[in-house]
Amino acid sequence: MRTIFHIAARDFLATVSTKGFIIAVVLPLVAYAIVLVAFPRFTNNQAPAVRGRVTVIDPTGQVHAGVREYLRPEAVAERRAAALNRMTSGPMAGLVSGSGGATAQNIVVGEQPHLAVIERPASALTQEKAHLNGPRGEDQQLSVVVVHANAIVATEPDKYGTYDFFVRANLDRRVQSEIRDAVHDAIVSARVGAAGFDPKRIDVLTTVERTRSITVTETGESEISPGLSGMIPMIFALLLMMSVMSSGQYLLTTTVEEKSSRTMEVILSAVSPWELLTGKILGQMAVGLVILLTYTSVGVLSLVSMAMLGLLDMSLLVYLLIFFLITYLVMGSVMAAVGSAVNELREAQALMTPITLSMMLPWLFWYQISRDPNSTFAIVLSFLPPMNAFAMLLRMTSTAPPPMWQVWLSIGVGMAAAAGALWFASRVFKIGLLMHGRPPNLATLIRWARQG
Amino acid sequence: MTDLAISLKGVTKSFGSTVAVRELDLDVPKGSLCGFIGPNGAGKTTTLRMIMSILFPDRGQLSVLGRPSAIDAKDRIGYLPEERGVYRKMRVGAFLTFMARLKGVNDSPAGRVAAWLERVGLHGVEDKKCEELSKGMLQKVQLIAAVMHEPDLLILDEPFSGLDPVNMRLLRDLILAEHRRGATILFSTHVMVQAEEICDHIFMLHRGEKVLDDDLASIRQRYDPRALMFEPFERGADVTPLEGVAGVASVTRDGGAYRIDLREDAEPSSMMRAVAVAMAPARLELRRPSLDEIFIRLVA
Q1: φ, ψ of residue B157 in degrees (nearest 5)
Q2: Which of A4, A128, B32, B175 is the one with CA 20 to 30 A from A347?
Q3: For A117, phi and psi rounded to 5 degrees?
Q4: What is the average per-residue pLDDT within B222-248?
């Protein structure tokens, strides 16, 4: 055990102190922090506090008053307050609360514009459009709305006119949207009034407040957006794939390097092949755990900062760890065996390609598995090593998790596969370590395993 | 308690259709300094790897320091493989400390490393990366890795290869010092004169089979060429009178001297006296057989 520990510690430290590891693991985290935390602080996505004129040419005489009323500063402020209230209590609440929430709110609704509505005759259209290219300032012309003559009273049965909308170049889209909403609201109210109805009454009758989805589970009710929770399986599969493949690749690389640099024989003078194999597998397992725990911690902290921790069933993290250990032992053993058998990395790629592709299968079908987690395809994949862990994690994090007996069966199958892979690796490792020359093919590896 | 450090009985190892070692019996007494000699491809490295349990024999029995496998006694064995290898990115001090820990040295391995580096003239290289050292320096570092845990058995595979004469002498002195300390030493070489200089016992391998196994004095006696080397006192003198000395079979020129082959019934010590009387010598000595000659005689 003492020698295994020393080998594992050396392999771990030698890997995590390389530039490659820092670039592969630490830099993405720094980039993530920049995007999530620093970037919004150094950029300004808020709409500018726009001030200016909205000119309405209204031959019907029934629209401009409604537009003016809609764009009155007090009315604008009231609608913004209502919009923010919906955001902070609705299904997207998590995204707009917490430290990033205020920024998110301002991005969505922008700064309150101050718009003066002016009515002009149709003859002034050319002149007013020319003002859209005039100098900027608090009295700048922002837009010209030309209401069609038949916008309120249909000239043919049920065939109403609309309006033309001219805007200054680069006018913020949220301000444009505010003016459009004002014209739309004013025209509808005028039409309803012209039809002999009370616009306020119609508004009351046609308004149904949008409600949020409430997910009912065995543990209670939660107000989580299905769209957001749908990302969780993908994130879990990504975490597993990244940690297993990274640490497995490190194991393969260091084994090949030690063999080609003839370091193996020096180490074998002090330890047995089995101790060397075990130490190397454990050392790189620790590397994989560092990657897994680092990224998982960052993910959990992100959820906490966005008040979305409810998206995550914490027990899934334990299963993620279990499936990581199992999948790593399978993949790590195979990679160590292949690494010991070849002379350079290029030769290893040829042997590893089929195994790597098989691991990619659940990843390629993650959407299908997540959408229908209890399909025959998904169930079969969750019992086939080495992809069983990915498939089972996708199913467990889906909206319809599998029964627990399937989870434990998948774990059992994975453990048996890990034991088999270790047995295979120990026998190939013993023979392959000092073999140089023509690289072996899969049949040769199997023969070595039988001989070993 | 056996007196053998290493014992091989009928050990055979093949790689595919090639038999690298065939039915090898080998007994290395404790405290001996043995040379394991033979040309390239004779099976020396394969044998040493089997002794170290890095390779495993197809047939036969093997015992190292009284154990059936070297794995059970690796802390008591030092091994310098023929293929030199280090963790190139690792610092020398860290590498040697790592190796010391693998060998079970737990009491201040760093101090022991520093002392050994000083001893082989590598003071101050602890913080250098292994890849920054020259080939000769790396060889010394690896030798330290093999001996610093004070092993009972030291196995060196071609330890002198690639060394300059100064370092060759340093290594020879280190080997002798380890032998004086009490370690059993088995080292392989294809340069037989090296074995001749320091070994007290020789194993010779040819095509995977042992062709010689004896102590050096017995070998020399057994393969006595029954010849004298003679250099006349007067340079360029006619040596014809020597051919008339009773017991002389022939006189032939050998470089700047003459080789006098003796008849089967001639006794070397009295022949030396008779030759000296016949002609004044500048040099007169019994010609000793070299291991090269013995090897050629054995396999010819």
Answers
A1: -100, 110
A2: A4
A3: -95, 125
A4: 85
Does A436 score more than 80 pLDDT?
Answer: no
What does pTM read for this prediction?
0.70
Among candidates B184, B162, B204, which has minimal Cα distance to B47? B204
Which residue in this structure is represented by tokens 């092993």? B151
Calculate ∠ Cα A215-A220-A225, nearest 5°. 25
CB B215 within 8 A of CB B229: no
Residue indicated by tokens 């975490």:
A239
Cβ–Cβ contacts within 10 Å for residue A169, how many? 6
Sheet containing strand B18-29, strands side by side: B18-29, B4-15, B59-64
* DSSP assigned state of A76: H
DSSP A169-209: TT--HHHHHHHHHHHHHHHHHHHHHHTT--HHHHHHHH---
The sign of the CA dihedral A85, A86, A91, A92 is negative
B85 closest CB neighbour out of A2, A262, A273: A262
- pLDDT value at residue A27: 80
Q: Give the chain B residue nearest A274 (alpha carbons).
A: B71
A143 pLDDT band (50/70/90 cuts)? Answer: very high
| Range in A105-119, A192-206, B247-261 with the lowest mean pLDDT | A105-119
Instruction: Give the torsion through C-alpha atoms of B168, B172, B178, B181, to 10 deg.
Output: -140
Residue bearing tokens 């002999």? A196
Asked if A264's CB is within 8 angstroms of B85's CB, the reply is yes
Q: Is A379 helix (H, G, I), strand (E, B) or coil?
A: helix
**SS3 call for A45:** coil
Average confidence score pLDDT of chain A:
82
Q: What is the ipTM of this complex?
A: 0.76
Identify the band that residue A282 occupies on the pLDDT scale cut at 50, 70 and 90.
very high
**What residues of B are in contact with residue A430 (Cβ under 8 Å)?**
56
Closest-approach residue (CA) in chain B for A452:
B56
Query: Cα A24 vs. chain centroid, distance in angstroms?
Result: 19
Is any Cβ of chain B less than 8 angstroms from the Cβ of A268? yes
Mean pLDDT, residues A98-102 taken together: 49
Q: Residue A408 has which token pair?
A: 């434990």
* Token pair for A248: 């497995």
Percent of chain B with pLDDT over 90: 27
Q: A353 vs A334, A347, A358, CA distance in Å? A: 12, 11, 9
- Which 3 state secondary structure label does DSSP give A114? strand
Does the bond joining A386 to the residue before it have cis omega, within 30 degrees of 0? yes
Model confidence at A281: pLDDT above 70? yes
Which residues are paired to B11 by β-bridges? Answer: B24
Residue among A398, A302, A266, A295 at smallest CA distance from B83? A266
Output the six-digit token pair for A265: 């024989």
> Chain B within 8 Å of A298 (Cβ-Cβ)?
no
- Is the pLDDT assigned to residue A111 strictly greater than 80? no
121-180 of A, contacting B, C-beta below 8 A: none
Band the pLDDT of B6: cuts 50, 70, 90: very high
Measured distance CA(A66)–CA(A296) in Å, rounded: 53
Residue B153: CB atoms within 10 Å: 22
Residues 391..450 of A with a Cβ closer than 8 Å to B: which? 430, 433-434
Identify which of A237, A219, A390, A391 has the alpha carbon closest to the alpha carbon of residue A310. A219
Predicted confidence at residue A91, as pLDDT, reads: 45
Q: Do A14 and B88 touch (CB under 8 A)?
A: no
Q: Does the pLDDT value for residue B284 go beyond 60? A: yes
pLDDT at site A136: 85
Whether A269 sits inside 8 A of B142 (CB atoms) is no
